Automatic annotation (TrEMBL):
PANTHER family: ACYL-MALONYL CONDENSING ENZYME-RELATED, BLR4310 PROTEIN. It comes from the Bacteria. It comes from Futiania mangrovi. Residues 11-142, 154-278 form the EamA domain. This is DMT family transporter. InterPro entries: EamA_dom, EmrE-like. GO terms for cellular component: membrane. Keywords: Membrane, Transmembrane, Transmembrane helix. The chain crosses the membrane at residues 7-24, 44-63, 75-94, 100-119, 126-146, 152-171, 183-203, 209-228, 240-259, 265-284.
Length: 293
């Protein structure tokens, strides 16, 4: 017999497993020896196939129904998801994994801001303060990078990916599709097709192909599928809080696989960002509210 405590533990295990898998994303992108556009093409097209296969396996009728009944908000959500992935890969090729993931950690705050603008939801004072504190932390992260072209561009692309992800979660709530599988598959497919004219797909070195296959067909579809199951058993605020594990695990993988060691400035800025996001999520938990993501 399933008790609330058992269901919560199940949700905790499922979400943590999904986040642990997702934490391999940025390090694997860095390990693929190709330009950003080629990586986007491989990653996105393989992701589209992976999302479609998993969604069809779970509920063939539901996937096809949602695909046929997608409205404009669902299509816009797919576009936002595709754009976030393009910006994510481009950023991962320019800046260290720790910097990228610490900026991505502010997605719940971006989603809250878009929910205020697009859905008319009230932006709480605490959320506004958290956004301000997080921006200060990001400012510390990029301090000293203002004269470094690639690094500055990489941080800007990470912020663009964060904003697109926040917009995706907001539009996902506004749309009418019951499942996210078709939206994720369509967004990934669109991103892959968009960059094909500027990508040289055959240029992917043979030694990087296993990384691309693991990333596109394994890591991304499995991670998102597991993470999407978490809120079934856990409050969305708890699931959002667990997403911060990626901010911790990703740099550890980068240290192991890429020998990247975060600087003191990154650690300080990261601490500010994590505290801002954690404080936001915990305050919502205490109020019994749900975050926009």
């Amino acid at each position: 017999m399933s008790t609330p405590a058992n269901l919560a533990l199940k949700g905790l295990a499922i979400t943590m497993a999904g986040v642990a898998v997702l934490s391999l994303d940025a390090p694997l992108v860095r390990l693929i020896e190709a330009d950003a556009w080629t990586v986007v093409a491989w990653r996105s097209l393989l992701m589209a196939a992976g999302f479609a296969v998993l969604a069809l396996a779970a509920a063939p009728g539901g996937f096809l129904r949602d695909l046929r009944t997608m409205g404009r908000w669902d299509v816009l959500a797919a576009a936002a998801f595709g754009a976030s992935n393009v910006f994510f890969v481009a950023s991962a090729k320019l800046i260290p994994v720790a910097n990228l993931l610490l900026i991505i950690a502010t997605v719940p705050l971006a989603a809250a801001a878009f929910s205020w603008v697009l859905l008319g939801e009230r932006l709480r004072l605490g959320t506004g303060l958290a956004i301000g504190v997080a921006l200060c932390g990001i400012g510390v992260l990029v301090a000293g990078e203002l004269t470094l072209g690639d690094s500055l561009a990489g941080h800007g692309l990470a912020l663009a990916s964060t904003l697109c992800s926040g917009l995706f979660f907001t539009l996902l709530r506004r749309g009418r599709a019951r499942g996210s599988g078709p939206i994720l598959a369509l967004g990934a497919l669109a991103a892959g097709l968009l960059v094909l004219p500027v990508a040289w797909v055959p240029a992917l070195p043979a030694e990087s192909v296993p990384y691309a296959l693991l990333l596109g067909l394994g890591v991304m579809p499995v991670a998102f599928t597991l993470i999407a199951q978490g809120p079934r058993y856990l409050p969305a605020t708890d699931a959002a809080f667990l997403m911060l594990l990626e901010t911790v695990l990703g740099p550890i993988w980068a240290w192991i696989l890429l020998t990247e060691v975060p600087s003191d400035r990154v650690l300080l800025g990261g601490l500010i960002v994590v505290l801002a996001v954690a404080g936001h999520v915990l305050s919502l938990r205490l109020r019994g509210a749900q975050p926009a993501s």
